[in-house]
Every structure is written in structure tokens, then in C-alpha cells.
Design a protein that fits this description.
This protein is an alpha/beta fold. Helix 1 links the parallel strand 1 (about 5) and strand 2. It has helices spanning about 10-15, 30-40, 45-60, 80-95, 100-110, 120, 140-155, 230-240, 255-270, 300, 305-315, 315-325, 355-365, 385-390, 390-395, 415-420, and strands at about 5, 25, 65, 95-100, 115, 130-135, 170-185, 190-205, 210, 215-220, 220-225, 245-250, 275-280, 330, 345-350, 370-375, 405-410. It is about 35% helix and about 20% strand. The relative contact order is 0.10.
């Protein structure tokens, strides 16, 4: 049986996504403290409590909730003080503690209790580059929040700015909770697919602002426009010149390469950048047989890994043309050290097949006038070592930097057939 940890109230409020990573115990003292905090007239705090409760509900199958009244105490300390009760409970039940409270840490260490500080180890765990707000116009608190959003985007001073604790370049999607969207599924059943979209916003480091983007048109695909809310956020990010490190993550078929390549090719054709530097770690799909030694030039050896770009351009002949015109350059990751790449889009696809050290190396190649674009999907890792050290998780550490933007896609748009692949995850 894996180690279990008692999670502190402050962690539930600030890092609710940590419930996905550990076997967690929540006892009655923690639950009572949440209820007590909920009675305070603090809109921002209430929002955090709602997120914490939702995380508990979403992970209820792996969380142990102890509703019994714990009567133990920590010898030599006030038995009514919640921090002392947390440490005593952990000792009596052989648990570790997840908390970033300094006093809890000192007491836990003094009694030999294993202690994890999520603010150091999992600062951006679960970061998606966006927050969903499900607005209920019958809820007084939601109405207050929505009024603040409207005032904020108009530039007015508000009582609780940045209510959702967004990082710079992080997005907010507002949904109407009372207006679900529905469709007939492949089995002829009417199913709820989501909610009506009320607004899309980005936090610029000072206040919320409405997103702004333009549809694009190119000779390969014609008019390209976003199909869902998260794709609209991606358009905004890709068209923001102030963001020089752009990341699109998410499920297969969600449009990561489609959206990025549409924009990248347009920018090169318009002369805003000289070329696309295509970088991909040449990792083959796991559990497949290697094709062995490949003859010919380095470019020819790497061509199989350019398949997404070749599909986008309409075939091998078009790809060869772009390479001949020096609008596309193929770069092997192993030979990139020392390069100073200027006036280019460095395009790193399948970055879940990179390590944190690879990402550091790639970021260090970005020269004057260049940007670096990443995409990837953690569910498509092709090696055990990438499951614990990969580019997707490494890049999330940049969240909150003004040059970094990220959108995580959650909906397959490739085809109804492609969407079936997700059902195999159970």
C-alpha cells in the first residue's frame, strides 16, 4: 500500500489538484475548518473553497474521508489548535503531511513525520493556462464576481481585482451554468456537452481584458477559424507578439499542430519570420519495432518525423519546396547546442518526448527576433523516463512569466472516429 498523507486546509485551497497525485486523507477537523472559512464574507476565499470541494468530489474514489471526531493531542501543545491536531492525527495514524505552513513543518519534523511542501514541489501542478468559471445568475456570490469582471475589463477599480488569482497571460472562460448545450450522440441519445459560453478573457498582469484575434487564411487550408472556446484562446495567444514562448498542450486531435502550423506558415509567408526551424526528438512510438538504420542525408533521416508538417502542406512535394526555399529547416535535437537562431519560429512538436534539460537547451537557442513554439500531450509519452521528466511538465514551471503563454486543449476536433480513442482510457 502506498504512503498516505493528511492534507492541510491551506493546500486544499491553493493546490486542490494535488489530490490527483497522492493518496490523501481528509479528517473531520479539516472539513470543519473549510466550513468555517466558507462563512466568511470573502468572495475570493469562497471561490477557492468551491474549487477545493469540487476537487474532493472529483477524486472521492481515492480520498479517505475520516468523519470521526479525533480526540488525540500533541503532548506539550494546545490541544484545540488545529495545527497541533493535524500533526497529532498524522502521528497516531502513520501518515505523512502535505502542508506549506511553517509551524506545521517544524512540528512534523520534530516528531519525525514525513512532510511535503507543495509550493516548492508542485507549484504549477495541473496548470492549464486557463480557469473555467461556471456562472450561476441565481447565486449572489457569482453575480458579484460577474459584475467585478465587467468593471475590470472596462478599466475600473474593483474591490477584489484578479478574483481568480490568475497568472499573467492566463485565461478565464465564463460559462452560463443555467444554459447547458446538448446534442444527439452517435448512439442517438441526447447528451449534455457543456454550457453556453459567456465570455473569454486574459489576465495581462494588471487586469482582465477581452481576448482579441483574427481568423486566418492560407493557400493550403483556406480560411482557418477556431472551433471551440479553447481554440479561440489559442488564436489569441498565437497572435500575441509579446508572448515569445508559446505552448499548446492537450489531447490528440485537438488541433495543436493544425492551429500552430496555420499561424507559423502564414507568418513566414508574410515575411514576419524568415523560416520555421522544425525540432523534434526522434523518438519512435513505444511498443513498435524500430525501422533500423536509415540511409542518405540527415534531412532524409529526419523526414519521417515531419509527417504532420507534410500533411499540412499537402504532401512531400510541397514540403520539399518549403525546404528548398529555406522556409523550413529540419533540426536534429542532438545537434542544436551552440546555435543562435534569429528571426525564426523554433517549432518543437511532441515535446512530451523531451526532458526538462532539453527544454532548457532549446530555450537557450532563441536569438533576436525569434520565438519558440511547443506542443505536446502527456498521454502520448513513448518512454518510461519521459513519464517522470518531460517537456510538458517542465514548461508549466514558466507559468507566470510575461513571455510565456499556454493553452491546454480538451476536445478532439479531428473527427468523430478519432474521438473514440479517448473512450479506451476507461
Amino acid at each position: 500500500m502506498s504512503k498516505r498523507y493528511l492534507v492541510d486546509t491551506n493546500v486544499l485551497l491553493e493546490f486542490p489538484e494535488i489530490l490527483q497525485e497522492y493518496d490523501v486523507v481528509i479528517n473531520s477537523d479539516i472539513l470543519r475548518e473549510l466550513e468555517s472559512l466558507e462563512r466568511k464574507h470573502d468572495g475570493s476565499l469562497k471561490w477557492k473553497i468551491r474549487k477545493a470541494k469540487k476537487a474532493i468530489e472529483d477524486n472521492k474514489d481515492k480520498i479517505f474521508e475520516d468523519l470521526s471526531d479525533y480526540k488525540g493531542s500533541l503532548s506539550g501543545y494546545d490541544s484545540d489548535y488545529i495545527d497541533n491536531k493535524i500533526v497529532a492525527y498524522a502521528i497516531d495514524n502513520g501518515l505523512g503531511i502535505i502542508s506549506y505552513d511553517r509551524l506545521v513543518r517544524l512540528k512534523a519534523e520534530a516528531y519525525g513525520v514525513e512532510w511535503i511542501d507543495p509550493s516548492k514541489n508542485f507549484f504549477n501542478l495541473g496548470y492549464e493556462g486557463l480557469v473555467n468559471f461556471y456562472y450561476d445568475d441565481t447565486n449572489e456570490e457569482d453575480v458579484y464576481i460577474m459584475n467585478n469582471i465587467q468593471l475590470e475589463i472596462m478599466g475600473a477599480e474593483v474591490e477584489n481585482p484578479n478574483h481568480f488569482n490568475l497568472k499573467i497571460n492566463e485565461y478565464l472562460i465564463v460559462w452560463d451554468k443555467n444554459k447547458p448545450t446538448q446534442k444527439i450522440d452517435n448512439n442517438g441519445k441526447l447528451v449534455t456537452t457543456g454550457y453556453k459560453e459567456l465570455g473569454l478573457y486574459k489576465y495581462n498582469g494588471k487586469r482582465l481584458e477581452k481576448i482579441k484575434f483574427s481568423n486566418i487564411k492560407n493557400s493550403f487550408l483556406g480560411k482557418v477559424s477556431p472551433r471551440n472556446a479553447r481554440q479561440r484562446l489559442a488564436f489569441d495567444m498565437l497572435q500575441d507578439d509579446e508572448i515569445t514562448v508559446k505552448a499548446l498542450f492537450g489531447v490528440f486531435g485537438s488541433g495543436k499542430d493544425y492551429l500552430m502550423l496555420s499561424h507559423a506558415i502564414n507568418l513566414v509567408n508574410e515575411g514576419k519570420y524568415d523560416r520555421i526551424i522544425w525540432v523534434r526528438n526522434n523518438i519512435e512510438v513505444k511498443d513498435t519495432n524500430s525501422i533500423g538504420f536509415l540511409p542518405d542525408s540527415l534531412e532524409d533521416k529526419l523526414k519521417p518525423f515531419l509527417a504532420p508538417l507534410q500533411d499540412f502542406l499537402g504532401g512531400e512535394e510541397s514540403l520539399d519546396r518549403f525546404i528548398y526555399d529555406k522556409k523550413v529547416e529540419v533540426q536534429h535535437l542532438g545537434f542544436i547546442r551552440g546555435r543562435d537562431i534569429k528571426n525564426s519560429i523554433i517549432y518543437v512538436t511532441e515535446c512530451q518526448a523531451n526532458t526538462k534539460e532539453h527544454i532548457q537547451l532549446l530555450l537557450g537557442r532563441v536569438g533576436e527576433g525569434s520565438q519558440i513554439w511547443f506542443n505536446g500531450d502527456n498521454k502520448q509519452t513513448d518512454g518510461k523516463h519521459f513519464e517522470v521528466n518531460n517537456g510538458v511538465e517542465a514548461l508549466k514551471m514558466l507559468a507566470g512569466e510575461k513571455l510565456y503563454g499556454q493553452v491546454t486543449m480538451d476536445k478532439t476536433e479531428r473527427s468523430e472516429t478519432a474521438r473514440l480513442a479517448g473512450l479506451l482510457d476507461g
